[in-house]
Amino acid sequence: KMLKTKIEGDCEDYSSNYDGSVMLVLNSEKELYSINGKKVEKVATDVANFEIAAEGEYAAYRSDEDGTLFIVKLSNGKSTEIADDVTDYTISPDGSAVAYTVVDGMFTNPDEADTDGELFLFKGKKSEMIGKDYDVYGVSNKGKYVYASKEDALYVITKKGEDKEKLGEDCVDVAFNCDGTQILFWDGDEK
Known about the structure:
By secondary structure, the protein is mainly beta. It is built from no helices and 18 strands. The protein is globular, with a radius of gyration of 17 Å.
């Protein structure tokens, strides 16, 4: 049977997990809704953007006002605050890890914000800084691998940020397998 539901406001964005069993919808009122089977629930308000984990149990979202990043367990709606001043983020396919970039002061005082961002990995209940001046692309299940770029080069970062392997220069497109342990990229320098 088809689910028919109406969510207030215009649809700004939507996304579903890999099998389509869970969908998130962001409306024009900055409210995030979860649709799971016949259940429609408001997940959060004041949402700027979101990303659902491929397996569909978790999602990450960032607040519109101050760049605060949250992770939410969709089955019970419990949100956990991760960090403020988050400019970019991604959630692992299993929802167990979130990689994100923080630029201090970006939302509170953008004219004087530090332009050098710090890359963090959130796993379990804590975050750890794993690098500086990186833009995040992806993170594997359990946060084993974090894929990030620095000065147009693509890196994989492992072991709490201690090991960094350069994968290529001028990478233009990046794709991952279902658990984030394999990466496909196009290196602009290769002919």
